[in-house]
From TrEMBL:
Comp. bias regions, Acidic residues: 1-11
Residue stretches of biased makeup (Low complexity): 30-48
Listed Basic and acidic residues bias regions: 15-29, 50-60
Disordered: region residues: 1-66
Superkingdom per UniProt: Bacteria
Name of the molecule in the record: DUF3618 domain-containing protein
Amino acid sequence: MSQPFQDDESAQTDRLPEQVEPTHDDLGRPAEAPTTEAPTTGAPTAGGDAEERAGEKAAAWKEQAVGTAAHLADRLREKAGRAAELARDRTPDPVLDKAGRAAAQVRDTAAQAGQLAAERAPDRLREQAATAAAAARANRAPLLAGAAVLVAALFLLRSRGHK
């Protein structure tokens, strides 16, 4: 059998314990005894050096983690886009045509219902309905995609029920 795929992120994750050990050693080392006089030159003490190094390492790890998270988020977006494209490509044309017709019928029925409701609804309700309609118009693509998925699912369920 082949060896499982190991990308750069998992390789970096495997090396994290090796990077953590020296820092644990640095933090576990006791600080030198403080002098009786305060430093006048502003130079850091030995304990300050360890704290400073630990802070620098923590900042570097944080930066690395943020970069890795951003990279993984980009890869996830790419894979989701490829999956959506693959689903569109594999959906048969008759299903897409029926979904388009069904969406048109839903739009017509909704328009008729909207006209009827507009004639009988109070003003405040009309304003809210206008806001909802504007939001639906602004997001037509997701609504049509959802309708297509719903119709495809109904066809699949129907075909399985006949077997």
